[in-house]
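Subject: for your reference before the review

Hello V.,

The reviewers asked for a structural picture of the protein, and I figured it would be easier to keep everything in one thread rather than splitting it across files. Below is the amino acid sequence we used in the manuscript, unchanged from the supplementary table.
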Amino acid sequence: MASSTRPTFALPTSLHSYTTNVSETLNETFGNLTYTDGMRLLIVICGYILLRPHLIKIGARIQAKSHADLDKQAAAEAEEEERDRKYEESYTTSAKMDGNFLRGAKDVDLDTDSEEEREMGKAAGTDWGKGARKRQRRFVKRVLEAEEKRREEEDVEGIEDLLEE
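And here is what came back from the structure prediction:
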């Protein structure tokens, strides 16, 4: 019969070497401390223990204030967008469009600023009125889409009238 060999575990030996290393390291570190160095270390540790909860509370207050400001800003932007959308809807349903606006509006590039506006913005270092220009572009797009739908409906009605006759 073949003799079975038991696997040897290195856990007891490695555990012993870890504890020996830790004890030697701590002894070398704190064994050479003078009274003054020990007092300094004690003051730093106690100061950390005493001040840490207060610093965490201060950080939490600052973070909560920052989150509240961001929430207010997001709510204000959403409210402004809603107000602009309602205004644009009321304007498109009640306003009559003149011929010059309808003739020239399809040739206008609504997505980009002119080269002059971009250069002025870079030179001045400010983007004043950027939001207003975006709102105006969105408004013009919506008005054009509403007018195009109205024209298509009129064309369909005109064709239906001709077919009926």
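For the response letter, the relevant points are probably these. The chain has five helices and no strands. The two ends are 111 Å apart (CA to CA).

Happy to draft the paragraph if you're swamped.

O.
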